[in-house]
Amino acid sequence: xxxxxxxxxxxxxxxxxxxxxxxxxxxxxxxxxxxxxxxxxxxxxxxxxxxxxxxxxxxxxxxxxxxxxxxxxxxxxxxxxxxxxxxxxxxxxxxxxxxxxxxxxxxxxxxxxxxxxxxxxxxxxxxxxxxxxxxxxxxxxxxxxxxxxxxxxxxxxxxxxxxxxxxxxxxxxxxxxxxxxxxxxxxxxxxxxxxxxxxxxxxxxxxxxxxxxxxxxxxxxxxxxxxxxxxxxxxxxxxxxxxxxxxxx
Length: 249
Description:
There is one protein chain. By secondary structure, this protein is mostly helical. 90% of the residues lie in helices and 0% in strands. It contains seven helices and no strands. The longest helix is centred in the middle third of the chain and has 75 residues, at 85-159.
């Protein structure tokens, strides 16, 4: 009970000390937070590079599995043509295992590629936010210096009974207008910073879907897969066959 009270009292004093330093030089505190965020961003980029290396390794595995499957299929066909069904059956069993391994690695590759792409998007967004924060720090620093100068001028004007409605007052109005304009620009930039990402993702999804559909149609037209395995409707296959006959004609 007593220790709890002592800890709360100590925490309150620590907060007072922290608040004192923050209020004493808020720009320095902002710069410190910015530098810390930049360091974290660098660590994130390094981690992303290592993750990309993992993706590339899995990609090589998938490519190797695909080559292995193709090689086994060629052997099976050759042995069947030679009438050696027993040997062909052994390779057919190995082919099943190779295709299973290929499917597993392809699933892993898809998962890793998705995670990598998402992390790249997040890092790009965070980088943009850091650039905006840096701009704000510079603006706040300039505003504080200007406000200090204005305060000193106000004291001087009061001491010497200056008329602030003269040219000095007009100059101050111009400065205030410029500060207001700069703040408006920062507000607009902040409001627009999150826009556009969803539209980009939707366009990418549409392009990918169209590319996948075109690839499936090509596979069906070339007889590489059946409409059932490719997920293409029978109407699409007939249309592809008709285009093939017209081309041949």
